[in-house]
Design goal:
This protein has about 525 residues and is of the alpha+beta class. It contains 17 helices and 21 strands. A hairpin with a 5-residue loop joins strand 7 and strand 8. The protein is globular and about 75 Å long. The chain binds flavin-adenine dinucleotide. Flavin-adenine dinucleotide binds near residues 98, 104, 164, 165 and 180.
Length: about 525
């Protein structure tokens, strides 16, 4: 008997070490949860086993096991579950998280011991394109952007604003902002939505727009999933171009690079997509580009040597239809003649619009085949005001970061006036600000401390911003205390908290963001 007990405690200890020290938060489930949920009438189904998938995300660092996963077939399934949890009141610990494609970085789509809604189950064939003078598409909140694009292209149309990677859900990116190289002109994805359909934290299904339930509409856009589950969205479309001229050039002078970027995002006649990235201590870069880009001057390009300098790549595209190629070439020539890049580093390519927009998926396939996709991703995304970008660059590139071999570092400017300040998204106060994205991968290697090193670098960058008084904002923010969240929202915190009280008064939704905590009161007296 003693021996058996000892064996049990050893097994328990081992399980504890594997689960807790290995990064998976062990949750002791409430035994009443399955029976209470199981009794609900649903068109879809609830799964109480195989829940580990919902305790994983792209960041690959945080793991919180839910009690159940809902695979909804209809919007009503989502409303039924949330209403049930709401009606259980504060005596129940249950929370609910919508999971889009699970591409969060720090457990934002997870619910420790709660119910995770697998939003992709909802998508089934609901994408409807409306052509006409102001074209738009109605799509499910669980639909992937790539599928929305494919459907729209059948009608010669496409959404206007993108993320660099399209295998993300509508509800997931609209809960953040959705930023890419088109945002300087069209604003982020949240600036291109006409209407949302939302199930609030009380289980009510509401349609909202700037005209109807406007407070909920604005709260949910960039709202980090706090106010309701986005079950449907109406998204603005434009005619889709057939082709894209895709251009990369290099700079070694940071000021010339950013001045050219800023000139381009403010010019009337300009490119259709403008981004940039930072290259530190990387060899063979131009050779890598040759697989998909052609150098304008192959001889000069082959002689180019970075000489150990930090380089800045300006990346842009011009959209065109095949019958307008000549005009497009003239416009591109005129634009390039205004830029101060290193002449031997002009690389160009022509691809279809779909190939361009879905470009990151090509890298995903390659990385997956090498086992390098499902590794920890200690990403850090910052929005830096224009007046401090030079100070930031001088300290971070070359001093804190001595190479960019662990993943791309994006750096490009955006216009504040293209963002709607009634939404929940938080951005710096200046008209021009930069997205700086450190997109590191940390595969385990023989020295094992890639992740640790990347996290320390992130801390140093944040620490520097703090000490230097740079009024930056985190994008895809991650904080662990409400004080930090209050500082993030600044004078918008009160409105954010007020709206939370209206639409999710028990703090049931998106607990993985760690902004509000459900207050649980014992029902026994
Ligand atoms: P999830 O990670 O599943 O969810 C994100 C949050 O939203 C969670 O809190 C979740 O509970 C909530 N949520 C999910 N669905 C809903 C819903 N329907 N209603 C309400 N709340 C919901 N972002 C950019 O802006 N620009 C980029 O270029 C970009 N590139 C990326 C490239 C890669 C490879 C990856 C992994 C991410 C990238 N992102 C980019 C970040 C991305 O926008 C966010 O991680 C986004 O949250 C991912 O969407 P998802 O569908 O996986 O959401």
């Amino acid at each position: 008997m003693h021996c058996l007990l000892r064996q049990h405690s050893v097994v328990f200890l081992e399980l504890f070490l594997v689960l807790v020290l290995g990064g998976i938060a062990m949750h002791v489930s409430d035994p009443d949860v399955p029976s209470s949920l199981d009794a609900l009438r649903l068109e879809g189904n609830l799964s109480f086993h195989d829940v580990s998938l919902a305790a994983k995300d792209f960041g690959n660092r945080f793991r919180f096991l839910p009690s159940a996963i809902l695979h909804p077939v209809s919007v009503s399934d989502i409303a039924v579950i949330i209403k049930h949890v709401f009606q259980m009141g504060p005596s129940s610990k249950l929370t609910v998280a919508a999971r889009g494609h699970g591409h969060s970085l720090q457990g934002q789509a997870q619910a420790d011991g709660g119910v995770v809604i697998h939003m992709e189950s909802l998508r089934g064939g609901g994408t409807r394109v409306h052509a006409g003078e102001r074209p738009y598409v109605d799509a499910s909140g669980g639909e992937l952007w790539i599928n929305v694009l494919l459907e729209c292209l059948k009608h010669g149309l496409a959404p206007k604003s993108w993320t660099d990677y399209l295998h993300l859900t509508i509800g997931g990116t609209l809960s953040n902002a959705g930023i890419s190289g088109q945002a300087f002109r069209h604003g982020p994805q949240i600036s291109n939505v006409h209407q949302l359909e939302i199930v609030t934290g009380k289980g009510e299904l509401l349609t909202c727009s700037t005209e109807e339930n406007a407070a909920l509409f604005h709260a949910a856009l960039g709202g980090l999933g706090q106010f309701g589950v986005i079950t449907g969205a109406r998204i603005a479309l434009e005619p889709a171009p057939e082709m894209v001229k895709w251009i990369r050039v290099l700079y070694s002078d940071f000021s010339s690079f950013t001045e050219d970027q800023e000139m381009l995002i403010s010019a009337r006649e300009t490119f259709d997509y403008i981004e940039g990235f930072v290259i530190i201590n990387r060899t063979g870069l131009l050779n890598n580009w040759r697989s998909s880009f052609n150098p304008q001057d192959p001889v000069q390009a082959s002689r180019f040597d970075s000489d150990g300098r930090i380089l800045f790549c300006l990346e842009m595209t011009k959209n065109f239809n095949r019958d307008e190629a000549d005009v497009m070439h003239q416009r591109v020539e005129a634009l390039l003649s205004r830029l101060r890049y290193i002449p031997s580093t002009l690389f160009q390519s022509e691809v279809t619009y779909l190939e361009f927009l879905d470009r990151v998926h090509v890298s995903e396939v390659k990385l997956r085949s090498k086992g390098l996709w499902e590794v920890p991703h200690p990403w850090l995304n910052l929005l830096i005001p224009r007046t401090r970008i030079k100070d930031f660059a001088e300290e971070v590139f070359g001093k804190i970061l001595t190479d960019s071999n662990n993943g791309p570092i994006l750096l490009y400017p955006l216009h504040r006036s293209k963002w709607d300040n009634r939404t929940s998204a938080v951005i710096p106060d200046e008209e021009v600000f930069y997205l700086v994205a450190f997109l590191s991968s940390a595969p385990s290697s023989s020295d094992h401390d890639n992740l640790e090193r990347a996290l320390k670098q992130n801390d140093k960058i944040l620490d520097f911003c703090n000490k230097a008084g740079i009024q930056m904002k985190q994008y895809l923010p991650h904080y662990t205390t409400q004080e930090e969240w209050k500082a993030h929202f600044g004078d918008r915190w009160e409105l954010f908290a007020h709206r939370k009280g209206i639409y999710d008064p028990l703090s049931i939704l998106a607990p993985g963001q760690r902004i509000f905590r459900k207050v649980v009161r014992s029902s026994r007296r």
